[in-house]
Amino acid sequence: MTNYSFPQDFVWGTATSAYQIEGSPTADGAGRSIWHRFSHTPGNTWLDQTGDIACDHYRRYKDDVAIMAELGTNAYRFSISWPRIFPQGIGNLNQKGIDFYSRLVDELLARNIKPNATLYHWDLPEALDDRGGWLNRDIADWFCDYAVTMWGALGDRVEMWSTLNEPWVVTDGGYLSGVLAPGHANLFEAPIATHNLLRAHGMAVEQFRSTAASQRGKIGITVNLEPKYPATDSPEDLDAVRRADAYMNRQYLDPVFRGHYPEELREIFGEAWPEWPDEDMRLIKQPIDFLGINYYTRKVERFHPDMLPLRTKHVPQPQHIQTETHWEVFPEALTRLLEWVTERYGRPPIYITENGAAFYDPPHTIDGKIDDPLRVDYYRQHLRAAHDALAKGVDLRGYYAWSLLDNYEWSLGYSKRFGIVHVDYSTQQRTIKSSGRFYSSVIASKGAVLGG
Ligand code: BGC
């Protein structure tokens, strides 16, 4: 039997994001975000659902922190809503917004749960979008002003900071396919959004080093990675995989760790791919303290001439379980991915900042319980895969389950449940699912139960 024991100081957390759980998005003087606008525009989301109420975490945060404590977690990854802090994105500060996050952080610390704050999880102030959003070069300065404000407010208590959550999704969903806010679909915009996200990240990391927050805290970035596998070993399919991998996995990591974009991006974007000044690339390549990786699935790809701009097509793998978001359950790719990052980028300290699955859950509890065996199995297999990576020498420091609560799954509204805690949206009642109990037992045993 394999011994799955994790290090004593391993970080065991859960993760959420502001717009997905907080509700009350415009309370206490907050400005509107692009997600507020996008979700209030008919036709953009499942049943036109919005984050107006979500999990009402803005008012119930103490109960939610109590649940984290009950689960035995020692860390919590949340995001800060920029328009709660600066309603217009820049300029006037909204102290009440800061106060909310300050209360949350104090509540976490009172229960020995380490706060891990993400500065940007997709809810850009609407007022900044009106000035071009991520397409405007000035956004790097706007982002830094906001970041410096948060380090001043919470830097004495928060030890882990992420600049961005999943810049790939921001660009791909927000500027290329248009299925996410701000809903643009423009080949020429996507590389510009990418570049400004990375400039904002680099500039913020550079500034962080000169703030008092850096005495106590560490800074990194969180990316979502999906290992790409070829459908066959034909040269066309191998080329397709190279492009898919460059686009999703190396587009952000190569600039951050190596100071240049992958060559394939020129091939993918053609005339839409601009030349960038060397000084931008130097700014982007700031040393970071850790890398956050969100892992959900892998993708098998094959060449397809009509699928622009990548000319690849995803090939479903029906022999494996698919989650409700049609993601193949494939845990061994997590181990492989962590090894790949370790080898290619010089063994950075890594946190798995998101991992989890949407599966159908029964709408009502039976005897006060929600049984979610598929999700339990997903966690068991992926935690084992994470342990395999540790055993192979990956500097893996922690793991955050996505998500603490069932929540607003962006364009898919409340139709997909990712929580290890069930939320009854009509009463806001929380019920820890079997997966939450299982995760709790993994934490309590420092992994030992994974061997059983
Ligand atoms: C995002 C979350 C999202 C989750 C599941 C990640 O891409 O960071 O906001 O809910 O995946 O789709």
How would you describe this structure to a colleague?
The protein is of the alpha/beta class and 452 residues long. The protein has helices at 18-21, 34-39, 57-71, 82-85, 95-110, 126-129, 139-154, 167-176, 189-208, 213-216, 235-258, 264-269, 278-284, 332-344, 373-391, 434-444; strands at 11-15, 75-79, 114-120, 160-165, 218-224, 228-230, 290-294, 299-303, 312-314, 350-354, 396-402, 421-424, 429-432. The protein has 16 helices and 13 strands. The strands form three sheets. It has an eight-stranded parallel β-barrel with strand order 1-2-3-4-5-7-10-11, surrounded by five helices. Strands 6-8-9 form a three-stranded mixed beta sheet, with helices on one face. A two-stranded antiparallel sheet has the order 12-13. Helix 15 links the parallel strand 10 and strand 11. Helix 15 packs parallel to helix 16. The longest helix is centred in the middle third of the chain and has 24 residues, at 235-258. The model has no long low-confidence stretch (mean pLDDT 97). The structure holds beta-D-glucopyranose. Beta-D-glucopyranose binds at residues 17, 20, 165-166, 169, 224, 294, 354, 402, 409, 418.
Properties at a glance:
binds beta-D-glucopyranose; alpha/beta; eight-stranded parallel barrel
Report low-confidence residues grouped into runs of 5 or more: none
Mean pLDDT: 97
Order of helices and strands: EHHHEHHEHHEHHHEEHHHEEEHEHEEEH
What hetero molecules are bound to the protein chains? beta-D-glucopyranose
- Gyration radius (Cα, Å) is 21 Å
Distance linking N and C termini: 8 Å
Helix content: 25-40%
Main sheet characteristics: 8 strands, parallel, barrel
Shape annotation = globular
Note the total helix count. Answer: 16
Coarse structural class: alpha/beta
Q: Strand sequence of the main sheet, in spatial order?
A: 1-2-3-4-5-7-10-11
Beta content comes to 5-15%
The strand count comes to 13
